[in-house]
Amino acid sequence: MSATTRDAIPRTIPLRWSAYRVATGLVLAAWATTFWFLLLAGRSTLYLSSRTAWVVPVGAVLLTLAAAGRLATAREQDPTSLGRRQSWLLGLLLVPVVLILVLPPSTLTSFAADRRGSAASAGYTAPAADIASGPLTLLDVAGAQTSKDGQRALAARAGEQVAFPGFVTREPDTPADEFLLTRFIVSCCVADATVAQVRIVNVQPGVWADDQWVSVTGTMYPLGREVLVDASRVAAIEEPSPAYLSP
Amino acid sequence: MSGDVRTVPPAPAGPHDLLPPNGRTNAWRAAVPVLVGLFALAVVLRITDPQSIGWMQNFFLVFSGLLVEALPFVLLGALVSAVIEVFVPMSTFERMARLPKAMQLPAAALGGIAFPVCECGSVPVARRLAMKGLAPQAAITFMLAAPILNPVVLASTYFAYRGRGVLWTMVLGRAALGMVVAITVGWVVGARSKDELLRPSAADAVEEADEHTGESRGSRFFGHMGGDFLFMGRFIVVGAGAAAAVQTFVPQSIVDGVASMPILGIVAMMGLAFLLSLCSESDAFVAASFVQFGPASQLSFLVFGPMVDIKLVALYMGIFSKGFARMVVIAAASVTLVACLWLQVWTG
Predict the structure, then answer these.
(1) Cβ contacts (< 8 Å) between B234 and chain A: which residues?
(2) What ipTM, to 2 d.p.?
(3) Pairs of CB atoms within 8 A across A/B
(4) Which pLDDT tens digit goes with each residue over A93-111?
């Protein structure tokens, strides 16, 4: 082979790390870490319903694969650089990561219950047959309020003893010896939370602060779309996990 | 010379298997201020404990919740989009484009049945389909129909209305109305080219892997998947922030007063669907809670929300040309309103 021919043989261009691809791989890795953190720390149900919490492990695996694949293929012949604008756009995607990892765990409170108000109350329909028998839950009470059959089935159980866990909320005109026992029903994520509420009467004034988790035992009296519980016992409890009810 | 392989001088070995020194320096210069900003944010959040303030706690929780729920679906959409780009030959789309026009839009709408993800996943797929040569109106019809017609969404609608007299009105009405609106909007969009449909920056930003046709399929796949996810992700972050702000500052009770008014009831529910930006897989549970609104108003919520809401508008503005995004929003709103008004008159 002549020297001229040898010079014409194409030589493979060496691969070099692309700053842009590495940066995007690291952003994906940060999100993968966040999803693993939510899964391993048991925080998925702070944001999601227990019926959609599967999204977190699936997201963790997919994001990990996407990050690994992106980093494994981050070398290229003509490396893409990382500009200031690209950096800030990638940084925007990391803001929620910082929020989730840094802020202490919390759940929806009386603030959200006030916002969601009466229009969004009882976002779940329970079959009348389910309400008519078995132990009553706040899910049954909320589900009964959206249909005539449900209301009738609940009314038939007036005077029964119930025990509901929930947290304390109040409206501006709530008397001192009453409060609203509240739970959120979350179907997918906290953005779709709807309110399940019963009015607790005959409680000791000045004892129970807003957002305090309590267990109330008493006698239930459905009155149209409102349900009263005449409290015989109110006790402080730890916030349950998950804190939200799932339909 | 052959266009595929470039002849270059011999490359030095070892440490030069990295960016050139000036490239590395520029990358660090761009990255460091962002990293410092994020670190400062973390320190401020830790010191000030903003969650002790009710509205801040609610905003952060709803904002994070929307993203934790949406991002896996965005990634799933990006994955499907990357599969389409890398593994599905162009000839497939050319064959689809040869279908009679009258069949293309219904076929695109019914395609949504086989794609069980919500609206966050259907947008990147529709964009990719348009870029691969599918008629833009068919891509738009698919994008609007998939989040409504997919089996998970129809099943969640069934469970939300189980035990009520309007159960099948809502489930079948949602599917039928969703399909009608998606096809009509696709038809209104007309025979525009993909260049009229997509923003130039969106087409450019798809992924730099497009330029590297010599790369392996694996490299192109991960390039497209990561690129699509990050491109869509920034609009989802902005949209989730806006939706969380609305949920934090606008009491839902303000819509109570208009519930019984025929036109206003429908408009109010469409407005609410726009503001709340719920996932189509869960919105039926919220719609079902508005018992003071009639079935037609609730259907308007269930059909309009998966097509147009705050986070989707942010996405549309990012990937579609401005006029086109506006046309999709106006067409979807008009057709939904007219269809629901007709339904209201028909059902009495």
Answers:
(1) 89, 92-93
(2) 0.89
(3) 289
(4) 999 999 999 999 999 999 9
